[in-house]
Amino acid sequence: MKLPDLKRELALGEFDDQIQHVYAGDHSELEESRIRFARLIARFGSVFGADGEAALFSAPGRTEIGGNHTDHQHGHVLAGAVNLDMAACAGRNDSSVIRISSAGFPDLEVDTDDLEPDESEYGSSTALVRGICRAAADRGYRIAGWNACITSDVPGGSGLSSSAAYEILVGVIVNHLFCNDELTAVELAQVGQYAENVFFGKPSGLMDQMASSLGNVVHIDFGDPAAPGIEPVDFDMAASGHVLCIIDSGADHADLTDEYAAIANEMRSVAGHFGKQFLNKVDPDEFWADLAEVRAEAGDRGVLRAAHFFAETKRAPEQAAALAEGRFDDFLALVRASGISSATLLQNLFGCSDPGQQAVGVSLALAEHLLDGRGAARVHGGGFAGTIQAWVPAEMAEDFRQGMDAVLGEGKCQIVRIRPVGGAVIAG
Q1: How far from chain centre, in Å, is Cα 102?
Q2: Over the stretch 63-107, which tens digit does the pLDDT of each residue have?
Q3: Are 3-234+419-427 and 237-416 in the same CATH fold?
Q4: How far is CA 222 from the centre of its chain?
Q5: 378, β-bridge pairs
Q6: Contact 41, 290 (CB under 8 A)
Q7: What is the pTM of this model?
């Protein structure tokens, strides 16, 4: 769609139904979304010119609800998309070069004539864009140059996986502009993981990308990562009487790749004892029966982390069933059990390289104090630094938020909603 037409139709409310479908917000949020997209269109015109064609896109952050560090061992997870997202105005250009202007970040360029991994780009957004385009090209699509302006309200380091939101956003753009929207939500997640693993240099699982791509709450069985089992969960948060809070502990979670990698490596060491590559193929009864030998080979921490996996991958589908069946008290009990397991078995509340920094543990202690036996709190996502998650009775939500912010800093506690739709084309 021509940029002036995109601007006019947005102002006339032509995209309101799609915006409402994607965000499921109230009228005031609909108006905020219109304003946000109008600013993106204006910025796109200013940066890249007002004569081209463009479309509007969105991809949400995600929250891990159950299955802490189970996806990379092909286990079960429970995750949900949240209402905080990345949005873009993007369109083709007449070159081979991708040009992206992201608010608050340096502009980047990627030449689609060169889609090989480059170790000098590890850890960069450029690497993710190059990797996603390579994955699409490997599927037989001709990828050329495009322009985009991107904005985000998914805070970096928030534990809501801004990286996965970025990957899915770029994937949705490429899919729409060059792949005829033929790549499925699952394929887009796999494309994002490929880019993160091979081009970005991070050995991540697939949960973050799947949650952002699929939307809503979803139970995922990664037993076959090429064709994961997907079970949407019908969950009405308002009916639960609780809100979901994501709390930034304030600790810097940069440079923790080695800590994250150690979890996967130690779990795989246990799996290797049984001749398997991943723990999902190991019989828990055999693990416990052969514990002395496993301990000698994989070490105590590897044993404990494997024990966490076996319990946690069993717990995630139980959480999904509890939500689907309206047994919210049972769900909360499972959240608490997950938090205890992550703290004592998985041991991802702080890094061994800096044991004096225990902001996640302090944040959990404060949350549990404020909850006073109600709701539930647990480490969120990768752990070691970053964020915690709390399910808070709705009538306590504002006092809880103020109590967390009073210690951790203003804005550290965010109340989020589950978003019903994953990566999406809004218009164009």
Answers
A1: 19
A2: 999 999 998 999 999 999 999 999 999 999 999 999 999 998 999
A3: no
A4: 16
A5: 389
A6: no
A7: 0.86
Rounded (to 5) percent helix, strand, coil in the chain = 50, 20, 30
Q: Which amino acid is at 416?
A: V
Question: For residue 209, what is the enclosing H or E element?
Answer: helix 207-214
Asked if residue 366 lies in contact with residue 401, where contact means CB atoms within 8 angstroms, the answer is no
Among 261, 416, 277, 287, residue whose Cα is nearest residue 352: 261
Fold of 237-416: Alpha-Beta Plaits (3.30.70)
Rounded distance, CA 421 to CA 23, Å? 7
The C-alpha atoms of residue 261 and residue 203 are separated, in whole angstroms, by 7
CATH class of 3-234+419-427: alpha beta
Residues 4/50, Cβ–Cβ less than 8 Å? yes
Burial class of residue 411, CB neighbours in 10 A (0-12, 13-18, 19+): exposed
CB 189 within 8 A of CB 132: no
State the distance between the two ends of the chain, measured CA to CA, in whole angstroms: 5
Give the C-alpha separation, 415 to 110, whole Å: 36
Please say if the pLDDT value at position 9 is more than 80: yes
Look at residue 253 in the predicted model and tell me its pLDDT. 61
- The per-residue pLDDT for 254 is 62
pLDDT score, position 131: 98
Q: Return the beta strands (E) in 9-143 as ranges.
A: 55-66, 76-92, 97-102, 108-111
As a whole number of angstroms, the distance between CA 95 and CA 114 comes to 13
Q: Which amino acid belongs to residue 172?
A: V
Any alpha helices (H) in 24-161, and if so which ranges? 27-48, 125-138
Domain boundaries defined on the chain: 3-234+419-427, 237-416
Segment 257-273 mean pLDDT:
93
DSSP structural state of residue 196: I
- Whole-angstrom Cα distance, residue 376 to residue 368? 7
State which amino acid sits at residue 13.
Answer: G
Would you mind telling me the total number of residues written for the chain in this entry? 428
Give me the phi and psi of 161, to 5 degrees please. Answer: 60, 65
From CA 98, how far away is CA 177, in angstroms rounded?
Answer: 12
Q: Is 90 helix (H, G, I), strand (E, B) or coil?
A: strand
Sorting pLDDT into bands at 50, 70 and 90, what band is 384? confident
pLDDT for 146 equals 98
